[in-house]
Amino acid sequence: MPHKHTLLLVDDEEDILLALSAVLQRADRLIVLAADADAALHELALREIALIISAQGMPGLKGVELLARIRQQAPHCVRMLMTGRSDIDEAVAAINKGGIARYITKPWRDEEVQFAVSEALERYDLAEHNRALTRQLAEQNQRLANFNATLELEVAERTRALSLKLKEVQGKDRIAQHMLMLHSMEETLDLVLEVIGHIIQLDKAVVYLIGDAGWAVAAALGTTTPGQPATREELQQLEITPVHYSAFKAVEDSGQPIRIEDPGHPLPPFAVVPIL
Known about the structure:
The chain is of the alpha/beta class. It has 8 helices and 9 strands. The protein has a 5-stranded parallel β-sheet, with helices on both faces. The chain has a two-stranded antiparallel ribbon with strand order 6-7. The protein has a two-stranded antiparallel sheet with strand order 8-9. Strand 4, helix 4 and strand 5 form a beta-alpha-beta unit.
């Protein structure tokens, strides 16, 4: 049977350790013996101790001081003090300083020690179970928080996609209504740019037409007023730089959109998209 609890018994008298060990020995318990406080602290560092019974009168660190140290290092370990003197002040100090669960006097009665240890281990198991439930609840809450965060992102993304789709449908309807009446190409391109700019929130957009004479500005959006089509006068002021010409030629040759970013040119980064 695997050991369920590890008990640490501390006393500088070997006979007392052996006698107490015999009283508390069970198939599901591992009894560890220590002759002084240093040996006890060493054992505490090696394994998880469920319960410790320490004698008070030992060379070096006394029982109360040892239990106080263990209270800091292993606060969940059940601590009991054993002494041959029934000194009330010593008992109070052990309770307050060492946080002991029980005060055992020498000589002890086997039945009382057995009952006290069994009862203490039951409380230890209950506390461990509660701590495990608390950890499990914290993990579940964290998973729920992560799920909610992911769900919020998905909802936001779906909302954005639906909003984009709605803008697209509304834009297509505007263009369809526009095409039912006669308009100039410039007016049609202005509307197309306005619709596209509204759908994908463009800061600025310009339509260049390729003709026999090369590239020419046909329509623009947001060049002077955000979200508004440019006037004919504003279009005439738009410059086609060598960077533009190079980008246009690359798109014309590849038929694919490209992104232009030239640190040596004052133009901000822009994209060129072919439209057929």
